[in-house]
Amino acid sequence: MSKRNKHIPVTKGQATTVRIIWMIVSGILGILILFPLLWMVSIAFRTSEQTFTSQLIAPDATLANFVHVFTEVPFLLYMWNSFFVSTMVTVIALFFHTMAGYALARLRFPGREFIFLAIFSTFLVSLPVIIVPLFVIVKSMGMLNSYAGLIIPAIFNAFGIFLLRQYYLSIPREIEEAALIDGASYWRIYLSIILPLSKPIMSALAILFFLTNWNSFLWPLTIASDPSLWMVQVGIANFSSQYAASWNYMMAASTVVAIPTLVLFIVFQKQIMDSLKTSGLK
Amino acid sequence: MASVEIRNAVKKYGEVQVIHGVDIDVGDGEFVVLVGPSGCGKSTLLRMIAGLEEISGGTISIADEVVNDLEPKERNIAMVFQNYALYPHMTVAENMGFSLRLSRVSKDEAKAKVENAADILGLGALLDRYPGQLSGGQRQRVAMGRAIVRDPKVFLFDEPLSNLDAKLRVQMRAEIKALHRRLKTTTVYVTHDQVEAMTMADRIVIMRDGHIQQIGTPLELYDNPQSMFVAGFIGSPSINFIPGTLKDGTFHGIGGLSFASDGPEGDAVAAIRPNKLGLSPGGSEWDVLEVEPTGAETMLMLQAGEVQITISVSDRTTLEPGDKTGLSALPGDVMLFDPKTEKRIL
Ligand SMILES: Nc1ncnc2c1ncn2[C@@H]1O[C@H](COP(=O)(O)OP(=O)(O)OP(=O)(O)O)[C@@H](O)[C@H]1O
Ligand SMILES: [Mg+2]
Asked: What is the pTM of this model?
C-alpha cells in the first residue's frame, strides 16, 4: 500500500509532463498552420502600400479590398460557378459512388475483382500526370469551356468508392438477407437499407467532395479559358497577372473563399473527424 | 400452414460438397430441430430452405410446391437469424412492418398486425425504440415479431438463442415453444445445443458432416440411438462408452464390467447412460477421479485403464477421489455398438 502511494504521484507527474510537452508541440504546429491564414486575413485589410509591412494589424485597416473584389471583378460569378460545380460533383458522385461501392461489395459478377483493382490503382496516379490526355479526351468530346467539362471529369473518385465499399463490407450480410426474405429487391435494399445506413459516411464524403472541388484549381484552369466559367481559385490566381502587385486583393478574395470552408468545418466537425477515422488517416 | 419436403438435397461450393443428399419430411405444424456439431451443414441446409443458398441437387418443396427456383420472398417463409439482423435505422414497429410495407398492405391493416404481434411478444411499450436501445432478449423478440407479422407458412430459426446468456436462453426457449403451440406454424430450428433440441423439438434431425445420422422424437433418439455418434450427442451428461468383447453369451468389458448378452461374438462397445450405472462396493477396478455432489444426486468421474466415465447416483456416497470401486449395470440398460462401423448391434 505504502509503495503504491509513493508511486502514483510519480507516474501522475510524468503523465503531466508528457501532456505538457504534447500540448506545446501541438501548439507550435497549430501556430505554424494558423499563421499564414492570419497573415492572409491581415493583408486583406491593408492598403496596397502597406501590403508588406510586418505589423499584424495595420494602423489604417480598410475594407476597400473587399469592395474592390466584389465590384471591379465578377467575383460573385466565380463563387457561383464554384458553388454550382462543387455541388453538382458532390451530388452526382455520391449517387454513383454508393452504387459502385455496393456493387463491388455485394453483387457477384464476372470481373468484379479486376474492376475493383482498376479503380484502386488510380490512387497511384495524380491529376497532373493525366491532365494532358484527360484534356484531349474532354476536348474531343466537345466539353471545353462548359460546365460539363468542369463537372464530369471531377466526379470519379477512387477514394470515395473504396471507402464506401469497405463500409458496405462491414454491414452484416444477414441484414440484407432479412430484407430479401421480407420481400425486398436489390434496388429496394439499396434504397431502404443501404443508403440510410451509410448516412454518416456519405455526409463525410459529401464534405470531402465539396471542399476538394471548391478548392480545385488545376483542372478548372485547364478546361475553362472563358472567364465566365472561372471558378474562385482560378479567379484569385488571375489577380496577380492582371495587376502586378495586387496581393491585398488576392488575400481579400482568398479570405472570402475560405469562409464556406470554415463554416462547413465548424458545422460538420464531427463528420469530418469520423471520415478521417474511418479512412485510417487519423 | 405447410409441410416441408427435402429430397436428396445436395449443396456444393465449387468442388467441396457440404450437404450429401439429405432427405427430411417436416409435417404440417411440426417443430423440427436440426442439430449437430459446428460445421456439419445445419445453417447451409436451413438457408437452402430459405432460398438464400442455391440448391446444387435434389428438391425442396414447401406446401407441395417445389421451391428450388423461387426467390426467398416467393417461398412464404420467415427467418430469424443468430445476430437478429434487425434494421438498425428503423424503429421496432418499422422493423416488424417492413415486409408489410413492401407488399403494399394498407397502413391500418399493417398497424393492426404489428400491434398484434407486439402484444403476443410483450413488445407493446417498445414499438418506438431503435434496435440499439434494446437488450439482447428484446432484440430477439423483435426478430420473432418481424417473422410473425408476415404470417408465413414456415418459420426458420438459425441458432436464435446462442447470443443470449444462459438464464435468458431458458426463458426464450419456453417462449418460442409457447409461440409455436399458439400459432402452430411449421418450424425448422437450427441449434448445436442438444438440450435445446431435446426440450423444444417434436422431432430432431441429427446431422454430421453433411449427412443425416438419425431422425426421431427426442425420446426415440435418447432411448434408441442407431450409432455411437447419436448416442454420444444426445443426453447430458453424455453416455459412457466401455469397450470389451462378446464371448459365449457374455460381454466382458474394461473395468470388470460383465453381463449376459446374446449379441454376435467379437469386439463391441457397451454404451450406458450415467444414471444406469451402479456402484458395486465389492469391486476395485475403477479409480475415483472426482466426486461432485449436486444435492439431489452425486456425479462421479471414474477411470479404468484408458477409459473415463461419468456416473450419477441418487444416494449419497462416502467415496472420495483416490478410492477404488466396482461397477454394475443391468443388461437391459446397455446398448452395444460395433467399434468399427460405430453402428448399433444390440
Ligand atoms: N461460402 C462457402 N464456401 C465454401 N464452404 C462453405 C461456405 N459456407 C459454408 N461452407 C462450409 O460448409 C460447411 C457447413 O457450414 P454451415 O455454416 O452450414 O455449418 P453449421 O452446421 O451451421 O455450423 P455452426 O454450428 O458453426 O453454425 C462448413 O464446413 C463450411 O466450412
Ligand atoms: Mg450455423
From this structure: 0.83
